[in-house]
Amino acid sequence: MQHPAPASFRLPYPRRNGVSQCLKSDENMTTVPVQMGMVQSFDDDAWDDLLNYIEERRVIPILGPDLLRVQTDSGLRPLYVWLAEKLAARLSVDPAELPQPLTLNDVMCSYLGQRGRREEAYTRLRSIMREVQFETPTALRQLAQITDFDLFVTTTFDPLLETAINMERYGGQPSTEVIAYSPNRVADLPSERADLRRAVVYHLLGRLSASPTYVLSDEDMLEFICALQSEHLTPEKLFHELEHNHLLLIGSDFSNWLARLFLRMAKRRRLSDPRDVTEVFADDHTSKDERLVAFLQQVSVRTRVYGGAESFVADLHRRWSARQRPAQAAHGRSAPQRFLPPAREMPENAVFISYAREDLAAVQQLKAGMDAAGLTTWFDLDRLEGGDDYDRKIRANIARCSFFVPVISATTQRRHEAYFRREWSYAVDRARNIAEGAVFILPVCIDDTPESAALVPEHFKAVHMIRLAGGEPTPEFLSRLQALFSGRGA
Known about the structure:
Rossmann fold; 7-stranded parallel sheet
């Protein structure tokens, strides 16, 4: 793609007052009067459209540093301003000589001007982050709770977003798929988005590391942007999704020209060309940038502009949550809880669910209902089914799970040879060491497979098979499991 040269790169976390020591600012450019009322307003119809797209999983949030206000030793601060101050101290850079508020780019430029080693800044920054443990910002937790989001793109290098998703979706287990791009190592999505099994966080501008593989300065940003536009260095699966889905650019701190360039790069076509997807800028400065607003309203007519990032997320979370409630009153009972993928590693006191991959939808229903009842469940979602390491992991999990639930169905009847049968065998081996009368195996049948004809180990037939149509757990089944857990003091 060919693009006009950007007037300035004020990234990753630009200062809009003052002149950078590395790159010329564009603040002296003549401003163009803009009728701000011409920007498309974000009214109730716009919210309704957005929420419909989100529920159809056609929206990708792209997150930036405006969402990252954290409690520090000097109060509630923007994370990257705080990091810049700490990095200046580690690199012996005098912040009094730099414009305020301090940016990482300013610190880096000053340090290099003192003949400092570029690589040292990255390892120092990693050390700073390792020494602190921030409380996850509310806005990130609210976004993580919107389970219709399965792919998150971030322009920051910190781990707070994946931490929020792990907290809200996986009980704190590190189960989010985390991918980081760098110009010397092109990492793409593991599969088409429709085939993703768990939430993915893609660090578009690199992830925190002791190596210079993430954006710390304006020069880094220039290298990343050029690489991302290169024919051989583009993560194709990711950019296909960005091109064909609606985008929420929340909390970005892009300069005027970089905002235009980023939007053009994501859409991979002229912004004035007709397209059936929308982009939303929700941050603290875009609506105040008259030149950028003028450009968007004249050229990129599908782009909408909202106000502050945190207020947008709060409003989005409130509206999305409200849309989940109407079904809860149906038939005088709560609607089934949304399925949240299991953690990569099995939690303590978990119920191990063994199943054939064709029955995944019913197993998801089963897990959602058990989760809603406060029962900890686990099953292997990735279904690698191969290799000694995988087998050792599964065998170890069956050896320490609280209960074992084999899912029986027409599928298991047809498959006379499959890995789930090995899981069943491991469970029987363990059951032989359990006191007679103590419950460990709880067979569940999700269809009308006759109990007498079920192709299961003899040990299973000694236990009453529970029928849960389509995998939906009954109150009696859940109550029994809760009682079993209580009896064990779990």
